[in-house]
Design goal:
Blueprint: E1 3-5, H1 6-9, E2 10-17, E3 22-29, H2 32-41, H3 46-53, E4 60-66, E5 71-77, E6 103-105
């Protein structure tokens, strides 16, 4: 299996709030084949996301492979409530950065 940087295989990598207590990470692939190869390789799991983000596996609430949109959606607990004192990303818009270092299979 040949791996490429995720930025070569996807159109969109983003993060955003999913309410004040959760974040959602969206990964939208360019092709059906790239989505399927990544899904079938088991790259995105609660275990892999917990390791990537340095958080407990229980903080990863969902990993959804949504084929109609060629997307993977990951929901995780925010380490701090959005807008809480000391919280540094109120909108959750900067939390996708660790995903940029990932490698995914080419179809």
């Amino acid at each position: 299996m040949t791996l490429v940087p995720i930025t070569q295989a996807v159109h969109v990598i983003r993060s955003k709030n999913a309410g004040p207590y959760e974040l959602t990470l969206d990964i939208i692939f360019k092709t059906q084949a790239g989505f399927a190869a990544t899904r079938d390789a088991g790259i995105f799991t609660p275990q892999s996301m917990a390791k990537l983000y340095g958080i407990a596996e229980t903080a990863i609430l969902k990993v959804i492979h949504y084929e109609p949109a060629l997307a993977i959606k990951i929901t995780l607990r925010r380490p701090m409530t959005s807008g809480a004192f000391g919280e540094t990303d109120v909108y959750g818009a900067q939390q996708h950065a660790p995903l940029l270092q990932m490698m995914v299979p080419v179809a």
